């Protein structure tokens, strides 16, 4: 056996001996190891004066595991929402007010694969004296680290199918281009928008 390989094996064995000594010399760590093994020691359990019994250690470990499971779930399921105000400068100059309408949307996205996600959402929109709502299903595919493509279908007062592509222009700015077709009359709409993130919880949107 080469001397370099023997040195690696000796180093690993020495580390194991040090870990074993640390566990055996600490009463609380030894209790955790006896009940749950190394997994219990590496789970993030905070050792304190209240954890003097096996039952208390078990309860604390289960609490930490439940928290980790919730964090995993949160990483795969992401709820979001938005409020958009439609403003019209020509309408404002004519003296009719600048507000044309408002839209409220929300969705829940879940990751189904490394590059794919499905989102289910709904929206309500008011424009002038009319309004409507729709339920939407979107399939998202991440093409690269800066671009993605979406296929969507919507049912409600506006039944649509569409395709949309997005690209990150910078760390806080995203450009989006989409095309949709109405299932009611076959009309086609092309849209362009740019979104800029102002903070962790808010962003601005310009749509053409």
From TrEMBL:
<dbReference type="InterPro" id="IPR055225">
    <property type="entry name" value="DNAJC11-like_beta-barrel"/>
</dbReference>
<feature type="region of interest" description="Disordered">
    <location>
        <begin position="189"/>
        <end position="208"/>
    </location>
</feature>
<dbReference type="Pfam" id="PF22774">
    <property type="entry name" value="DNAJC11_beta-barrel"/>
</dbReference>
<feature type="domain" description="J">
    <location>
        <begin position="1"/>
        <end position="37"/>
    </location>
</feature>
<dbReference type="InterPro" id="IPR001623">
    <property type="entry name" value="DnaJ_domain"/>
</dbReference>
<protein>
    <recommendedName>
        <fullName>J domain-containing protein</fullName>
    </recommendedName>
</protein>
<dbReference type="Pfam" id="PF00226">
    <property type="entry name" value="DnaJ"/>
</dbReference>
<dbReference type="InterPro" id="IPR042162">
    <property type="entry name" value="AtJ13"/>
</dbReference>
<dbReference type="InterPro" id="IPR036869">
    <property type="entry name" value="J_dom_sf"/>
</dbReference>
<dbReference type="InterPro" id="IPR018253">
    <property type="entry name" value="DnaJ_domain_CS"/>
</dbReference>
């Amino acid at each position: 056996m080469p001397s370099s390989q023997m040195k690696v094996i000796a180093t690993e064995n020495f580390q194991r001996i040090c870990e074993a000594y640390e566990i055996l010399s600490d009463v609380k760590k030894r209790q955790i190891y006896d009940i749950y093994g190394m997994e219990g020691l590496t789970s993030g359990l905070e050792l304190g004066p209240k954890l003097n019994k096996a039952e208390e250690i078990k309860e604390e470990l289960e609490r930490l595991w439940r928290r980790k499971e919730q964090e995993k779930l949160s990483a795969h399921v992401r709820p979001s929402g938005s409020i958009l105000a439609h403003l019209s400068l020509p309408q404002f100059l004519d003296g009719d007010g600048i507000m044309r309408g408002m839209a409220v949307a929300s969705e829940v996205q879940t990751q189904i694969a490394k590059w794919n996600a499905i989102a289910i959402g709904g929206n309500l929109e008011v424009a002038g004296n009319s309004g409507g709502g729709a339920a939407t299903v979107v399939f998202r595919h991440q093409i690269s680290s800066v671009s993605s493509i979406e296929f969507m279908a919507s049912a409600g007062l506006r039944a649509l199918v569409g395709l949309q592509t997005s690209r990150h222009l910078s760390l806080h700015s995203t450009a989006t281009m989409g095309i949709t077709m109405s299932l009611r009359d076959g009309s086609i709409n092309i849209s362009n928008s740019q979104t800029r993130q102002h903070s962790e919880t808010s962003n601005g949107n310009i749509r053409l």
